[in-house]
Amino acid sequence: MRILIMNYEYPPIGGGGGWASSQIAKQLVVLGHQVSVLTTDSGLSKTTRRDEDGVSVWRCASYRPDRDRAGLRTMASFVVHARRTLPQVMDAHRPEVCLIFFAFPTGLLGLGLLSRWRIPYAVAFRGGDVPGLEQRVQWMHLLLKPLMKRILRHSAAATVNARSMAPFVAKLADEQVTVIPNGVDVEFFAPNDGFRTSLPTFVCGGRLQAQKNIVLALDAMADIAECRMTVVGDGPLRPSLEKRVHSLGISDRVRFTGWLTREALRQELQKSWALINTSHYEGHSNLALEAMACGLPVLASDVVGNSELVVHEQTGLLVANESSWVQVLKNGVARPDDLRRMGARARIFVVENASWMAAAKRYADLLGRLAMAIDSTVPFRTDRTE
What we know:
Elements: E1 2-6, H1 16-30, E2 34-40, E3 48-52, E4 55-60, H2 72-93, E5 97-101, H3 111-117, E6 121-124, H4 138-154, E7 157-160, H5 166-173, E8 178-179, E9 201-207, H6 214-221, E10 228-234, H7 238-248, E11 254-258, H8 262-271, E12 274-277, H9 286-293, E13 298-301, H10 306-309, E14 316-319, H11 325-334, H12 336-353, H13 356-373
Parallel strand pairs: 1-2, 1-5, 2-4, 5-6, 6-7, 7-8, 9-10, 9-12, 10-11, 12-13, 13-14
Antiparallel strand pairs: 3-4
């Protein structure tokens, strides 16, 4: 099967959604499919095409000043430049079906696929593009609602990476939604007790934005003198978080690493005692899965997404009240054996339940059914039909 994946972010650009699309693409190739990707990159003067682990990756030269985040201008630029590049991709690869990551902005590119090329597409919702999930951007979703409905009306399927997202999307799409969780490379991300620090060290991070609520973790650890914290990743709130650390007088106990290579991230996880996730909401967190694969328990806010990944007091802890975080960290420092036991169970959980190959097989099955549903007598076409 010839599959086109479109995403406005793709490694080394973006966060969890970009990483997930790259892993799905690579595993689809392993399964024997021909995969092309249309995405973007920063600093390009023209569109480039390169083979990456068997995936033909097209990066269009759109406006992308920041590696870790994208505003409306960046998103609009991607849509404009990707639409210009799309005919080249279609002519070169002649895909039979398309998987679109993020209903907005990438979903806009799907509207012409059926009318111009008779290509069915599935939309993979990732979290921030799910209406009603994040109140902070609810105003934007209200403005985009008619457009989102149109994108989904023309799509052949919709997927989410967490069960808790499905009702939100189903309400918008008025159709059945398929749940396909994220995966993790359990062979690469694995425990190494020899790296574990003797000092109580917790790790948190990802894309440093309001959703992650990392200031709560910093405030909680400020009262625990023995506690250390490593903040991995980057984002718009990093300067304010660094100022917060300074004002709390804990600069000697908190370290910001910025974005890390996979090898460096694995080492940071292997050093730590637990992953802290204080997010206001989550999808199926890649960082949490990687931490669990490394044998770390996840201490997480009891919110959408986290409650599906963390089994309370088995693979981690679910914290219902923000005021409880200080005590949660104190208990972790005082009872490291409890953290180790939960971490061991977390490792078993992801080995048995989460892999990128399993996710890719489910996407392949879905996309295969979509491709078969299209009238095979209609020829591939590059001329626009009204």
